[in-house]
User: What shape does this take?
Amino acid sequence: MRRVILPICLMLGACVPGPSSEMPSRAATHQATTLPAMKSFSTPRPVPPMRSNRDIQRDFLELAFQLESGRMLQTFSRFEGPISVRVTGSPPPTLIPDLNRLVGRLRTEAGIDIARVRTDSANITIEAVPRAEIRRHLPKAACFVVPNISRLSQYRSARHSRTTNWSLLKTRKKLAIFLPSDAAPQEVRDCLHEELAQALGPLNDLYRLSDSVFNDDNVHTVLTGFDMLILRAYYAPELRSGMTRAQVSSRLPAILSRLNPRGDALPPRMASSTPRAWVDAVQTALGPGARHGQRLAAAQEALRIAQAVGWSDHRRAFSHFAMGRIVQSTDPDYAQEHFVAAEQYYRRTPGTDLHRAYSASQLAAYAINQGRGEDALMLIGPHLATAERHENAALLATLMMLRAEALDLTGRVAEAQAVRMDSIGWARYGFGADWAVRAKLREISSLSPLKGPNG
Assistant: This one.
């Protein structure tokens, strides 16, 4: 299940005097009647994993033989033979092109024999339904995948039965993925990547993975080079459904040496496991349903655990980031201290370029609110290409809008307007409806002392 963790960079509300994009008004500050066309990404550019195969073997086993709840799985399961995928329900216009693109990547990068079909007998059914229907079944989920059914209408009666019990699954034959039909294109695509990857392969998420969608921090939104390697290993001919952990473990070193020879030469880092208490604290702090006081206490607890464990990796950074997000609206200066700390820890951790782009958005928003346009431009500049390479249109649009405000502050008004207009095509993919795009433009515009209530 893809958890609904608050977008970690897309709400910049600490410095915003008006309503945030969570509660957008339909009155537009930018009154263009027709927004620029939606933009889309072209050729994928995944970054190959740069870590030891010994580390990847440990990651594979924990991803494949454990559920997100912590429950252990006794046997390895996957599809055997060609895999067919069909789409039902009310898919938004972007779903089919995004699915075709993903299926192409799975075939070429992961070596999986998978194809889209229109027959009722498909192995994987992707049903697009209104968000409210998903929340009716799982209130905290944006989307989810279930074995042995093909329609959401079947889920309520089957959810507590042996039919949908992942731990009893020996071989995967039929699964259903439920996606929101009325969400922003990027959210639909993000769900598609995560849930199809879990339908095919690992069922677990690990917070220690800095370069994977198999991580509930939701930093990575499309399948990474690491994810494709894990899926390629999942469907290696040396493995088969029904194997035990010991049997899979004995074959993995040779599989990874064949698929990722560079990983044999790299020393292992052996990152520590993530305590369940830290996971629970982060999900309370950033997930839905908690009051501000509960979020703050949970963020403090996550940071306390990270300090006590002695982390200096992206999990320590994320603990500071979560704290910054929680106190952002009540104490922007204190939040800034945590965003700076997060950036310092991210900078020391390999493979966190995308994380640093999120941090940069917060640091730049603070600089703009203080009227420091040149500082904001320096913060944003290195991360535009990162957001584009990782196909995160919402983040890219946010950074571009921030850049436009920074350019305005430095007197480069014509350049600012060009950047702002260019951002809208990405924002339409990242944020969806025109009113949401205009709300984001207003939100970021109101950061500037030139345009805010006192400007």
About this structure: Residues 1-7, 13-32 have pLDDT under 50 and may be disordered. The longest strand covers residues 83-89. Strands lie at 2-3, 83-89, 114-116, 124-129, 141-147, 175-180. DSSP finds 17 helices and six strands in the chain.
